[in-house]
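Escalation from tier 1.

The customer reports that the assembly of three entities below gives different structure tokens on two consecutive runs. Tier 1 could not reproduce it. I'm attaching the input and our single run for tier 2 to review.
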Amino acid sequence: MTEVKRNPIPVLRVRDLKIYYETPKGDVLAVDGVDFELFEGETLGLVGESGCGKSTTAMGILQLITPPGRIVDGEVLLEGHDLLKMPEESLRALRWLKLALIPQGAMNSLNPTMRVSDQIKDVIIAHEGRAAKKGIKERILELLSMVGLPGRVYDMYPHELSGGMKQRACIAMAIALNPTVIIADESTSALDVVVQRVVAQTMLKVKQMLGVSMIMIGHDMGLMAQMVDRIAVMYAGKIVEIAPVREMFRDPKHPYSQLLIESVPSLKERKPLKITEGITHDPRNPPPGCIFQLRCPFVMDRCRVEPPPMIEVKPGQQVACYLYEPTEDGSFAHVADVAGNP
Amino acid sequence: METTDSSRSSPAAVLVAPARVNKRMGRFNRWDTPWLNSKLIIGVAIISAILFVGIFGRLFWNTDLAFTGSSPLNLPPVGVTNTLTKQVGTWEHPFGTENSGRDMLALMILGAPNSFLVGVIAASIGMSVGIFLGFSAGFIGGRVDDVIRVFSDVTITIPALMVLIVIQSVLRQIDLTTMALLIALFAWPSPTRLIRSQVLTMRESGYVQMAKLSGASTFSIMFREIMPNLIPYLFASFIGNATGAILAAVGLETLGLGPQRVPTLGGTIYFALNSAALLRNMWWWWGLPTLLLAIMFIGLLLINLGLDEVANPRLRQSSQ
Amino acid sequence: MSQMLLEIRNATKVYMQRGMGGGKHEVVALQDFNLNIPTSPASIITIAGESGSGKTTLAQVVLGFTRLTSGEIIFEGQDMSQADGKQMKAYRREVQAVFQDPFGVYNPFYRVEHVFDTVIGNFDLSSNKSESRDMIEEALNIVGLHGEDVLRKYPHQLSGGQRQRIMMARAYMVKPKLIVADEPVSMVDASLRASILDVMMRLKEEMGISFLYITHDLSTAYQIGDKIYILYQGTIAERGNTISVIDAPHHPYVQLLVDSVPVPDPDIHWEGEIILPPEEEMRTSISSGCRFYARCPKHFDRCLTAQPPLYPVGDQGHEASCYLYDEKAVALEAKPL
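Tier 1 run:
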């Protein structure tokens, strides 16, 4: 994790993205108006529990939503070009060249009948043409060594590799074309702790070397703390808070972020267990107002009426919660109440 | 104690939301959506219509007309003229008659249920044997499993129709039930294999382990935990088997190897072919039973596809 | 003897696996494993390890789903490793389980109440309807749920956390002496995990039920566990009190493991880089000697001779299976030759 000098121009900009899944009982609002920016060289973490729409958001950015899902609305601007308006042809070229994906189960995303090197070769040739064939072996060996794999892997088939090695081969494939943005979807969550650490450190190293921007999707807050620069917390299809990683861990604002941070078990001290009710609404029919109202310990009347807008509480830290609505004197309206009356 | 409090202090919120969800879910309980797919509905409608005519048709139509000589010979259907005899169709025999004076409508009213009867008997026997063997193989495993698997695999490779032709030509005079029993000899391997594989999968499932932990006996695990989840598969397999059995029966009848005493659809086609109905331009004689059989098979196929959708949720999504 | 609720002695489980070429080879899932759970006070014993460490095999063996290749499982003085059906049923009244997948353990055909009805029916827990209803309600209340909210629903209508708590309630209703909890929180969302861990704590403290808590996640074990056994490829690497083992790990593997858990603090980073020898990653480990040899930064020749026994490394039974802590040898080595 590096201190990022933030380039004011975002590489990727997602505006009001809405992705719905059609079901016989009505549309499931998987992603319901997601807004965020990804700056050059930064790693953004997208966290939330299963079903909150974090993976769907990634698939939406990559334009890989398949029926019954569909993108209802929004913009995905990659260096100023709206991916949603692009023909499939140019998208396909863009997908490896600019936008690379490290998928969830690497074991399943590699073709078992092809050597790892041939798969990387295919990716390069498909996008750069036959001319790239010259010196391609050296190039692939370099990619492999960048992700910490020995040269022998060049001639190996996926089944000869362990899970962590396959995952790293996938990283090598993802960076083969020097993409602008890498999306890593839970790419280490199926691995054992030690191997997870190796893969995560590989990802950090590669990111630093190439200076690419990265979106990391995951649910492990500990891993997020180690890997990302900013965190966006998603709940039920919406981003409820975006903040630099330090702010998020020191001083989370949204009640849901607070809950997430508090529920990270520690290896340093025994904490009392924080119990919450997991009542969620029907994703086809979200209640009016704030989406977190059913679980929120601070819920107020107006939370049930109108969804809270994103409020900037600190530079770079935005939260969708009425607790932080500024009053005329600049203080937050409800924070005092909450503190005095838990 | 604080913990119980925190979960109790929110029942207001807790109760409002699930109650609403509950009402919606209540309407969509598990029998609803998957079972009400259009294929299944149309298929069931077609088969019920044919069965209805077959069962209640005899109340509205004199089925004695199916006996030889009960009607004029070679009469065409209503609105058609027999090109050879120049006879014109009448409403007394709306579907026409054949060359020994049997009324086509009466033949079909009697023939259709007979075909179904063969299918149902053969499929039921095949199914029962399949359930027994499939569960034994899946649950007992080891040698029993090996023997059952080898037997069913071998039987499935035997060309059933050929063997049936040989047996029936030796037996000559047979009735519907005997034919059904003979066909059932070949109807058990596919349900056996299906049930065996499902039992093997479900046996490892979490709920079977849970039932074991709850002290449930093997018998109760088979019939209370596994069997209900097999229902869609059993239905689909039953319909598939019945279709196969009807097809085999019709094949034998068309070759003249079916029961001679009772009117059957295949038998009617056999007589038509035997009496040169094609040359005599009496298309209704062989055409109408063929058409009825075709509709029947389409109905059965639709039911089978519909049940497949129930059993495999993945197919369900793609069709919507 | 009567002091121990459960004793596992020299438990070894070997699976035959078909290789790629059709040849068979043995996989040792558990080797000479020993474990004691005292009758009282009730405790939460954690079995921690990576995939392939044998922890799930251990759960299956304790629950009587698979039989040991050799060794004994002694429950209240009676060897259960060769138990017949009747003994097994009696045993299951005392030893219950909660599994990892909170969905698969429900039969999709039935409503949630079926889970309770099966237990009550098979174990004759109650004599009439209203008694069983009270029992179910009491068990559900323990886990913070109410019958009217959940019993008439189908499992897919409940959240993962609720489903898992219902499984806890079901296990509790049998009033067992031991619950095997096989990764009970790993498929439950982070914000709901605490409620399940809390139920485990309360069942231990208020009801005197012991737990065999099987997990890959050291941090939840740290929060609730009393004793911990850390497994590596079927053998114990280190055992002792949870806090002392995790605060001061001695076995090189356990040190690596504890060190690799990502710290939820952006200012504390992983120290240094570890390089896994690819052979080791692929688990083609040696059969004699210490199984961690290839990966161990501190290995020496003796490690190849035999699997190291457990050497005491701290108080209250803190032991590590590593020759580094063989005091006699250390003393010998100190002498110049």
